[in-house]
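ok here's 3-oxoacyl-ACP synthase, seq below lol
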Amino acid sequence: MGCTITGCGKAAPKLVVTNDDLAHLVDTDDEWIVQRTGIRARRIAQGESATDLAVAAAEAALGIESDSAVERSGWRRPASGSKAVDPASIDLVICMTISPDAAMPSQAALVRRRLGAQRAVCFDLNAACSGCVYGLSVAESMMAAANAPGSARNPLRRALVIGVERLSRVVDWSDRSTCILFGDGAGAVLLEWSDAETGIRSTFLRNTDDIDGVLTLGAGRKDDLPPLFAALAAEQASARQSAGPAKAAPGFEKSADQAPESALDPQGFPPHIAMSGQAVFRFATAAVVEAIEEACARAGADVDEVDLIVPHQANERIIRYAAKKLGLPMERFQLSIESSANTSAASALMALTDALVQERLRVGDTAVMVGFGGGLTAGSVLFHL
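and the structure came out like this:
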């Protein structure tokens, strides 16, 4: 018995911002960004809320047809049939995010209401870019406890675990070291408690004190975006209507006054994502390897038995380093960063959806999901699909 993944979905805003577009804002170019990160484009929310993205991803995971204004895709376990899952049957909703629509009510509460999941218990979880694995681990633990013999807890048979971010609202668009890295999006997984010999087989979570503040974000964020993005959104909307090629972006000058004003909050944290790239890289490369090995060891499996590793999509170089360290070919790793960039808590769930839709991961396969990020946090989940 255990938690089986029966649905998966992702959603992204329509606005595409390429590396060449960012060259209008900061001193950078496509080659420089691709060589250092593997990123070529990212999606930026223009009017879409975190709730819009989260609900669209959740509906895709549930198999619910929708005329949502955002782009989405989804996968359902073949044995589930074609019938959509009724949101009213969901018992638990967990949203992982560092960029919610509001501090209160929680992002999960907003999603619960929009979906119509009236009986669901819901709450938010903040583990930064490790949110995907923390959320899955918490959901699995709660469901296992609720379904244990003699349990006096809330009945939990179905859970939605959703990662959603609008990082464009917490990025300093004048800082080329960070603004090139991030994007907006949402990913969702439907977990169901079943007697099948599938599901989550092990979890591993780890925290390290971020003593030097290598990855931080204050609470006093601003919601300003560069004027360039409004122009790009208008162009892309026009191009979609006419089905003709999009014109080149207008010649915006690189100007710091287009970016939000930076000022430390009372706790000393900046209102935008601040990062020491080299320190984060050192932490991440070690954390990914440890997390994969630990998940396998706890499940009694060898790393070579894993069909696909789905890592947090932070930087292609981190993933390649881990593959080399583990002696695994890159074909065993899911890469979705090229077109989505780093979407923090949403990234690994979005990548998992890609892997399932692309049939790189199939029913019967074994996979490991890995997260690492601010806190500092890291973790992994090994599951048998």
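fwiw Residues 246-263 have pLDDT under 50 and may be disordered. kinda neat tbh
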